[in-house]
Each structure stands twice: as C-alpha cells, then as structure tokens.
Amino acid sequence: MGSLTLKQFRAPLLEPIDLHLQAGECQTLSGPSGSGKTRLLRALADLDPSQGEVSLNNQERSTFSAPQWRSKVGLLLAESGWWLERVGDHFKQPQAELFERLELPSEAINWEVSRLSSGERQRLSLIRLLSNQPQVLLLDEATANLDQANTAKVERLIADWRNQHQVAVLWVTHDPQQRKRVSDHSWLIESGRLRKAP
C-alpha cells in the first residue's frame, strides 16, 4: 500500500507543485513534449535534483536512503535500461503470472536482451518493475511502443495491480483516450505549471 504527497515540490523547469495520490489511485499527466513530465517523474524517483517535500505514506523522502526510496517509488521510463546480456539477469524474483498476463512465454526470462523488440522490452520492463513490489508506480508512456491489443493488456494489469496492492500510480500519457480509460484524475503541464486537464 502506498500514497504519495508533494508539497511545494519543484523539479527543473516546473513551478512548485502540491499533489496527493491516494493508495490505489491512478492520476495521469499530459502536456507538450519538453514540458517537464519526464523530469518530474525522475525528480520524484530521486534521480534528478528537486526542491520541496515529497513523502511516501506520510514519511518524508529524506528519511529513506536513495536505494530504499527507489525500491518503493518505482519508475518505468519510456526507454528502459538493460545493462546485462540476458533478460533473467535483470530480475530478482520473476513472477510467472505477470509473464502470462502480458502473453510473454516463460522462456522469455532466458532471452538475450539484444533480440528483444521495442514492445517486448517495454512489457518486460513493466514486469521487472512490478516484480520489485514498489508501493508507488511512476509510469512514463508505459504503452508507447505497443499495439492496441497489448496496450489493453498492460492497462488491465496495472488496474488490477493497483487495486490488489493499493499502490498509487502517476502515469504520463499523450493519449487522451487512455487518460479517460485509466485515470481517476488528470493533470496537464503547460508553461511550467500543473493544472487540471479539461
């Protein structure tokens, strides 16, 4: 279970933000390219500099070590990092159910990263993230490289996951239809400011 609270939180190029994501809630974030969406997610994950307060379940980030925070507030980037040769080398405890949900064969764990398509990389990076059991999900264009069928599978998996585990989700998407399907609240970044999406 995880909730995320921002108080006067400021990432590069963004004005201070006050925001609360309840456990089990999904909020989406959209805006023009270069408006600061990814910068905000990276700052929340403690990968880029920030100012102000951010807390997990009312516990301030400053009380966590960086590795502790990043294990609890998990970031899925649009272009995921793969630094070892085999897929399985990137997993601590792969969950077979997650492979099944995204219709990837169990032997995918033994695949070489170099043979993966962009869609396979994206789905496997989501499985890797969920396998680490974070309490908050920061998703940057989680379905950008997927066709309609696989997009639907990912959306269902994330919806089921957040309901079952009561994790908060902040999801960057450029797709207005996806925003309607997955979000409880939608936000827009324009000119460095966060405002409610129309």
From TrEMBL:
CDD domains in the record:
ABC_ATPase
* UniProt domain ABC transporter: residue ranges: 1-197
Name of this chain's protein = ATP-binding protein
The record's keywords, sorted A to Z, are: ATP-binding, Nucleotide-binding
Recorded hits in Pfam families, A to Z, give: ABC_tran
Q: Which residues cross the membrane?
A: none
Q: Tell me the organism.
A: Candidatus Thiodiazotropha endoloripes
Q: Which GO terms describe its molecular function?
A: ATP binding; ATP hydrolysis activity
